[in-house]
Amino acid sequence: MKRRDFILTSAALVSTSFAATPLVAAVPYVEGLVATELAAGATVFLDFKASWCTTCAAQERVIEKLKAENPAYEKSVVFIDVDWDEFGRSDLVKRLNVPRRSTLIVLKGDAEIGRIVAGTNEAEIKMLMDRALATTLA
């Protein structure tokens, strides 16, 4: 097999395998969504982010990597993206006392399970996601 044919065949196989297993994107926040999910008994992972925020982008890369490694996260936890530019002054932000964009918060019922502010460390984000997952198994 020629090198060019090998590369083209390999690229086709790789793109096919990724197309077969797409990642489920987080749900965009709308007013009342968090209350509805919590009332239904869901564990909610809130990601307060802005499209222009480099810290938010770094957090998103880590979150997506961890979700790809462990599909149980998306099967059990509701991930909600809160656009900081649109909802940075909302009642949700005030009620949860969110200090800034690039804040990650996990909620279950009336309790806050954990929070990370401006952290991009994979181990810390994994620990928060694992805590979220653990609440769904209890």
Automatic annotation (TrEMBL):
Alphabetical list of InterPro entries matching this protein? Thioredoxin-like_sf (IPR036249), Thioredoxin_domain (IPR013766)
- In the UniProt record, the signal sequence range is 1-19
Organism, per UniProt? Pacificibacter maritimus
Q: Does the keyword Transmembrane helix apply?
A: no
Question: What Pfam families does UniProt report for this protein, alphabetically?
Answer: Thioredoxin
Q: What is the lineage of its organism?
A: Bacteria, Pseudomonadati, Pseudomonadota, Alphaproteobacteria, Rhodobacterales
Q: What is this protein called?
A: Thioredoxin
Q: Which UniProt keywords apply?
A: Signal
Does NAD appear among the keywords? Answer: no
All copies of the Thioredoxin domain together span 15-138
Q: Which Gene3D superfamilies match?
A: Glutaredoxin
